[in-house]
Amino acid sequence: MTHDAVRVIRDEHAGLSAMLKSLSHMVRVGPDAPEIGGRDRYFDVLRAMLFYIDAFPEKNHHPKESNLLFPRLARAAPDLMPTIEQLERDHMSGEMRVRELMHLLMAWEYLGELHRPAFENEAVRYVVFYLDHMKLEETVLLPVAEKALTEADWAVLDEAFCGHADPLSTRRLRDPAYDRLFTRIVMHTPAPLGLGE
Ligand SMILES: [Fe+2]
Ligand SMILES: [Fe+2]
Fold it and tell me: What are phi and psi of 163, to 5 degrees?
Protein backbone atom coordinates (compact mmCIF):
# COMPACT_ATOMS: atom_id res chain seq x y z
CA MET A 1 0.00 0.00 0.00
CA THR A 2 1.33 3.43 -0.91
CA HIS A 3 1.30 5.93 1.95
CA ASP A 4 -0.51 9.25 1.46
CA ALA A 5 2.72 11.20 1.96
CA VAL A 6 4.38 9.27 -0.87
CA ARG A 7 1.40 9.85 -3.11
CA VAL A 8 1.52 13.60 -2.40
CA ILE A 9 5.28 13.76 -3.03
CA ARG A 10 4.84 11.99 -6.39
CA ASP A 11 1.87 14.26 -7.27
CA GLU A 12 3.82 17.39 -6.47
CA HIS A 13 6.78 16.09 -8.49
CA ALA A 14 4.47 15.44 -11.45
CA GLY A 15 3.13 19.00 -11.37
CA LEU A 16 6.58 20.44 -11.02
CA SER A 17 8.04 18.32 -13.77
CA ALA A 18 5.25 19.40 -16.16
CA MET A 19 6.14 22.99 -15.28
CA LEU A 20 9.89 22.40 -15.84
CA LYS A 21 9.33 20.66 -19.18
CA SER A 22 7.10 23.51 -20.28
CA LEU A 23 9.80 25.97 -19.20
CA SER A 24 12.43 24.18 -21.24
CA HIS A 25 10.10 24.12 -24.25
CA MET A 26 9.67 27.90 -23.94
CA VAL A 27 13.44 28.35 -23.79
CA ARG A 28 13.88 26.12 -26.85
CA VAL A 29 11.36 27.97 -29.05
CA GLY A 30 12.25 31.49 -27.83
CA PRO A 31 10.14 34.66 -27.64
CA ASP A 32 9.67 35.08 -31.40
CA ALA A 33 8.06 31.70 -32.16
CA PRO A 34 4.58 32.28 -33.65
CA GLU A 35 2.78 30.24 -30.99
CA ILE A 36 4.17 32.41 -28.16
CA GLY A 37 2.01 35.44 -28.93
CA GLY A 38 4.63 38.11 -28.48
CA ARG A 39 7.60 38.95 -26.30
CA ASP A 40 5.58 40.42 -23.43
CA ARG A 41 3.64 37.23 -23.02
CA TYR A 42 6.84 35.18 -23.25
CA PHE A 43 8.46 37.01 -20.36
CA ASP A 44 5.22 37.07 -18.35
CA VAL A 45 4.83 33.31 -18.57
CA LEU A 46 8.48 32.60 -17.74
CA ARG A 47 8.38 34.94 -14.75
CA ALA A 48 5.20 33.27 -13.47
CA MET A 49 6.78 29.83 -13.86
CA LEU A 50 9.90 30.79 -11.93
CA PHE A 51 7.82 32.49 -9.25
CA TYR A 52 5.70 29.35 -8.89
CA ILE A 53 8.78 27.15 -8.50
CA ASP A 54 10.25 29.51 -5.93
CA ALA A 55 6.98 29.95 -4.03
CA PHE A 56 5.61 26.42 -3.94
CA PRO A 57 8.22 23.65 -4.05
CA GLU A 58 11.06 25.68 -2.57
CA LYS A 59 8.97 26.91 0.38
CA ASN A 60 6.58 24.03 0.85
CA HIS A 61 7.71 20.77 -0.65
CA HIS A 62 11.45 20.82 0.12
CA PRO A 63 11.18 21.90 3.77
CA LYS A 64 8.85 18.99 4.52
CA GLU A 65 11.28 16.57 2.89
CA SER A 66 14.31 18.10 4.59
CA ASN A 67 12.79 18.49 8.05
CA LEU A 68 10.60 15.40 8.33
CA LEU A 69 11.42 12.74 5.76
CA PHE A 70 15.21 12.91 5.49
CA PRO A 71 16.02 12.73 9.23
CA ARG A 72 13.69 9.73 9.75
CA LEU A 73 15.15 7.99 6.77
CA ALA A 74 18.73 8.71 7.85
CA ARG A 75 18.00 6.89 11.13
CA ALA A 76 16.08 3.99 9.57
CA ALA A 77 18.39 3.42 6.59
CA PRO A 78 21.89 4.75 7.31
CA ASP A 79 23.16 3.31 4.01
CA LEU A 80 21.19 6.05 2.29
CA MET A 81 23.25 8.79 3.98
CA PRO A 82 25.30 9.78 0.88
CA THR A 83 22.08 10.09 -1.17
CA ILE A 84 20.35 12.09 1.55
CA GLU A 85 23.35 14.44 1.79
CA GLN A 86 23.24 14.95 -1.98
CA LEU A 87 19.49 15.70 -1.94
CA GLU A 88 19.93 18.08 0.98
CA ARG A 89 22.68 19.95 -0.90
CA ASP A 90 20.27 20.20 -3.86
CA HIS A 91 17.58 21.70 -1.63
CA MET A 92 20.01 24.28 -0.32
CA SER A 93 21.33 25.31 -3.74
CA GLY A 94 17.95 25.06 -5.53
CA GLU A 95 16.46 28.10 -3.86
CA MET A 96 19.45 30.26 -4.79
CA ARG A 97 19.50 28.92 -8.32
CA VAL A 98 15.86 29.74 -9.06
CA ARG A 99 16.31 33.30 -7.75
CA GLU A 100 19.43 33.67 -9.87
CA LEU A 101 17.46 32.43 -12.86
CA MET A 102 14.75 35.08 -12.29
CA HIS A 103 17.47 37.69 -12.15
CA LEU A 104 19.05 36.43 -15.39
CA LEU A 105 15.61 36.52 -17.06
CA MET A 106 15.09 40.13 -16.02
CA ALA A 107 18.55 41.07 -17.27
CA TRP A 108 17.59 39.69 -20.69
CA GLU A 109 14.15 41.36 -20.66
CA TYR A 110 15.28 44.78 -19.43
CA LEU A 111 18.88 45.03 -20.63
CA GLY A 112 18.71 43.25 -23.97
CA GLU A 113 19.77 40.31 -26.12
CA LEU A 114 23.36 40.35 -24.91
CA HIS A 115 22.02 38.75 -21.71
CA ARG A 116 19.96 36.08 -23.42
CA PRO A 117 22.55 33.25 -23.57
CA ALA A 118 23.30 33.46 -19.83
CA PHE A 119 19.61 32.92 -19.04
CA GLU A 120 19.12 30.17 -21.60
CA ASN A 121 22.19 28.21 -20.53
CA GLU A 122 21.35 28.37 -16.84
CA ALA A 123 17.68 27.53 -17.52
CA VAL A 124 18.68 24.34 -19.35
CA ARG A 125 21.10 23.36 -16.55
CA TYR A 126 18.52 24.12 -13.87
CA VAL A 127 15.80 21.97 -15.48
CA VAL A 128 18.20 19.00 -15.74
CA PHE A 129 19.30 19.53 -12.13
CA TYR A 130 15.72 19.60 -10.86
CA LEU A 131 14.45 16.63 -12.87
CA ASP A 132 17.48 14.59 -11.73
CA HIS A 133 16.77 15.56 -8.12
CA MET A 134 13.15 14.35 -8.25
CA LYS A 135 14.15 11.18 -10.09
CA LEU A 136 16.68 10.34 -7.36
CA GLU A 137 13.99 10.84 -4.69
CA GLU A 138 11.47 8.72 -6.57
CA THR A 139 13.74 5.87 -7.63
CA VAL A 140 16.10 5.59 -4.65
CA LEU A 141 14.63 7.32 -1.62
CA LEU A 142 10.90 6.60 -1.67
CA PRO A 143 11.16 2.84 -2.32
CA VAL A 144 13.52 2.49 0.68
CA ALA A 145 11.27 4.74 2.78
CA GLU A 146 8.26 2.52 2.05
CA LYS A 147 10.18 -0.45 3.46
CA ALA A 148 12.23 1.09 6.27
CA LEU A 149 9.95 3.60 8.00
CA THR A 150 7.57 2.65 10.80
CA GLU A 151 3.84 3.32 11.01
CA ALA A 152 4.59 6.01 13.62
CA ASP A 153 6.89 7.72 11.07
CA TRP A 154 4.19 7.54 8.42
CA ALA A 155 1.56 8.99 10.73
CA VAL A 156 3.70 12.13 11.10
CA LEU A 157 4.60 12.28 7.40
CA ASP A 158 1.06 11.70 6.14
CA GLU A 159 -0.22 14.40 8.46
CA ALA A 160 2.44 16.90 7.32
CA PHE A 161 2.16 16.22 3.59
CA CYS A 162 -1.60 15.91 3.45
CA GLY A 163 -2.60 18.51 6.01
CA HIS A 164 -5.59 18.23 8.28
CA ALA A 165 -7.79 16.75 5.62
CA ASP A 166 -11.46 16.21 6.06
CA PRO A 167 -11.66 12.66 7.50
CA LEU A 168 -14.16 11.70 4.81
CA SER A 169 -11.91 12.88 2.03
CA THR A 170 -8.34 12.03 1.04
CA ARG A 171 -7.96 15.43 -0.54
CA ARG A 172 -5.04 17.32 0.93
CA LEU A 173 -5.60 20.85 2.05
CA ARG A 174 -3.15 23.47 0.99
CA ASP A 175 -3.34 27.10 0.03
CA PRO A 176 -5.51 27.09 -3.13
CA ALA A 177 -3.61 30.16 -4.35
CA TYR A 178 -0.82 27.85 -5.58
CA ASP A 179 -3.29 25.80 -7.59
CA ARG A 180 -4.78 28.97 -9.08
CA LEU A 181 -1.33 30.20 -10.06
CA PHE A 182 -0.52 26.81 -11.61
CA THR A 183 -3.78 26.94 -13.63
CA ARG A 184 -3.10 30.50 -14.72
CA ILE A 185 0.35 29.53 -16.01
CA VAL A 186 -1.08 26.57 -17.92
CA MET A 187 -3.80 28.79 -19.44
CA HIS A 188 -1.20 31.27 -20.68
CA THR A 189 1.43 28.82 -21.86
CA PRO A 190 1.21 28.18 -25.60
CA ALA A 191 0.04 24.83 -26.93
CA PRO A 192 1.02 22.01 -27.19
CA LEU A 193 2.14 22.12 -23.54
CA GLY A 194 -0.28 24.69 -22.24
CA LEU A 195 -3.82 25.64 -23.13
CA GLY A 196 -3.14 29.19 -24.36
CA GLU A 197 -4.12 30.00 -27.91
FE1 LIG B 1 13.56 17.17 -2.77
FE1 LIG C 1 10.80 16.11 -3.75
Answer: 75, 180
User: Quick one: the chain helix, strand, coil %, rounded to 5?
Assistant: 80, 0, 15
* Tens digits of residue pLDDT in 91-133: 999 989 999 999 999 999 999 999 999 999 999 999 999 999 9
> Which listed ligand is nearest to 94 at the C-alpha?
1
Nearest to 88 by CA among 41, 40, 30, 137: 137
> Nearest bound ligand to CA 6?
2
Ligand nearest to the CA of 10: 2
Which domains are present in the chain?
Answer: 4-188 (1.20.120.520)
CA of 109 to the centre of ligand 1 (A): 30
* Amino acid, single-letter form, for residue 160: A
Q: How far is the CA of 141 from the centre of ligand 2 (A)?
A: 10
User: Model's pTM, two decimal places?
Assistant: 0.86
Amino acid at 169: S
CB-CB contact of 38 with 52 (8 Å)? no
Any idea which ligand is nearest the CA of 90?
1
